UniProtKB/TrEMBL annotation:
This is Putative membrane protein. The keyword Transmembrane helix applies. It comes from the Bacteria. InterPro entries: DUF998. It holds the Pfam family DUF998. It comes from Brevibacterium marinum. The keyword Membrane applies. Keywords: Membrane, Transmembrane, Transmembrane helix. The chain crosses the membrane at residues 12-32, 70-92, 104-122, 134-160, 167-185, 205-223.
Amino acid sequence: MRETDPAASAATRSTAAAAICWIVAAVVYLLAETLTASAFPGYSYAMNYISDLGVPDVEMLGNRPVDSPLHMVINIAFVAQGLLFAAAAVCFTRCPALPLRLPIIVVGLVHALGMVIIAVVNGGQHNNELGLGWVHLLGALFAFFGGHATAICIGISLLMQRSGQPIAAISIAIGLIGVLGIVMLQVDVRAIPGMLLPDGVWERIGMYAVVAWELLFGAFLLARRSRKALSKSPAAALD
């Protein structure tokens, strides 16, 4: 009878759970954004901000008309994305041999906190007049920083562990691309308006970097698990 390592089995199950959470988080976000944007008259992925989709009021924000009938859909998706992301980070770090376990958990929770904040405190004019605009911006900072930092920390962790080196390098690269998008958004908003790309494009580079990484890394984890299962199948057949 083949012996199994309970700790290894638990780590394998946790890794699979992490992969599923990241993939589901990405799919939920993309579907919700597509649905909400389709109901938003004249919504522009280039000119409008993502958070415009979550504003409940019909109004003008700067030079952008805002009218999002399905604002609740995207706000629920923000929360779902954050909670699933945090759950994935915690599950992924169940492996005791993984380096940078605590930093990965912390930045994963920071991302989740940011996504919840931007859902609860939307970026509309009403909240700005209440003096809550900075809360929404802080939430966005947490969401972007936490998501990008998670990809980078996991990439570094895998390099330290000397496993999955291509996906480690890709994770770090995607995280840095996301950081670049948000840095350029701030440059565009505060220093040189309209620099190279519209605001909405820079912001989406930041957000889609997180979503792309979730899909890619989740798929990698599931594929690796499948390969390990196949490699063990001959032995299993002898049990």
